[in-house]
Specification:
By secondary structure, this protein is mainly α. Helices cover 77% and strands 0% of the residues. The termini are close together. The relative contact order is 0.17. Protoporphyrin IX containing FE binds next to α1, α2, α3 and α4.
Length: 155
């Protein structure tokens, strides 16, 4: 039951992660390509997106500890040929998502420290783009060739 609830939350939070990253990227690219000053709202978007990514990371780590798919993988180590679902979530999903969150965190804290507004926009744009691409690759989309999961998970 708890597992089901956490899975629904984790599945739904992907949309918050993607939405906040995309909004921050629109602000970062617009400020970088059409130079303007770095406003408090740009900072808020960046900090909120980073925080949502951190919360999703924590939910993901918790899900990892209770998921039957993960425990089955570490117990029996099914090979790739048997069912990609197991190594996908046990290794690929977690690795790419961890890399993404680290890149987003480093980008956000670097942008915060920079004094030049154009540098702030540019740094946010580059780091967040890399993070977003990594996340998009690691999500089990309904059209994914590896593992498919629903767009929205209901109980
Ligand atoms: C930060 C960005 C992340 C996003 C956007 C994300 C997104 C997703 C999505 C959409 C699913 C499919 C949910 C469903 O079945 O409906 C999923 C499953 C899963 N995620 Fe993540 N995830 C992220 C990070 C992580 C991290 C860091 C971990 C582990 C440390 C993790 C562990 C898992 C596990 C174990 C499952 C499968 C659980 C199961 O079916 O038993 N996720 N994730």
């Amino acid at each position: 039951m708890l597992y089901q609830i956490i899975l629904v939350i984790h599945s739904f939070m992907r949309w918050l992660v993607l939405g906040s990253l995309l909004t921050t990227l629109v602000s970062a690219y617009s400020g970088w390509l059409h130079p303007r000053s770095y406003r408090p709202s740009d900072q808020t978007l960046r900090v909120v997106a980073t925080s949502i990514a951190h919360i999703q990371l924590l939910v993901g780590i918790y899900l990892y500890t209770i998921s039957p798919i993960i425990s089955y993988y570490w117990k029996f180590r099914p090979s790739f040929g048997e069912a990609i679902e197991f190594p996908f979530f046990s290794l690929i999903h977690i690795s790419l998502m961890l890399i993404a969150v680290v890149v987003i965190t480093v980008g956000s804290s670097t942008a915060k420290r920079l004094k030049n507004d154009q540098q702030k926009f540019k740094t946010t744009a580059i780091y967040f783009t890399i993070g977003l691409v990594s996340i998009l690759m690691a999500i089990p989309w309904p059209f994914s060739p590896l593992v498919t999961r629903p767009w929205i998970r209901l109980f």
